[in-house]
Amino acid sequence: MADLKTRRNDGDVHAFLDSVESKKRREDAQAILELMQDVTGEKPQMWGTSIIGFGSYHYKYGSGREGDWFLTGFSPRKQSLTLYIIAGFDAYDHLLEKLGKHTTGKSCLYIKKLEDVDLEILKELVRQSYAHMSQTNTESYD
Fold it and tell me: How many whole angstroms separate alpha carbon 90 and alpha carbon 93?
């Protein structure tokens, strides 16, 4: 079984954000950092080389594979800001309808620029997902 490459590490979150090429993407990422810190009350930590995560939980699949993952997080990717809504989106249609311009993957929310979305709705989406993940994954390790 292959080891998971994306692991929590001691990387410098602010140095990582300072290295983001696009000034606009850097500014948006800083705003997301503040939003997620405010919502979670958690200290941001690097996961791998390009993801900033908040909180953590331990998972174990029936197959025996297990590991640690963040409860919520984001990455300032070149194409878009990627927010990791680990709970998925099934319970959040009512928020996504009001969010603004975005796309989604299984548990990824893609935003081109922050002014395309309603920040209060985004904050509520992160809050609800984080609360859900915190409550359903009680084996949390920080």
Answer: 7
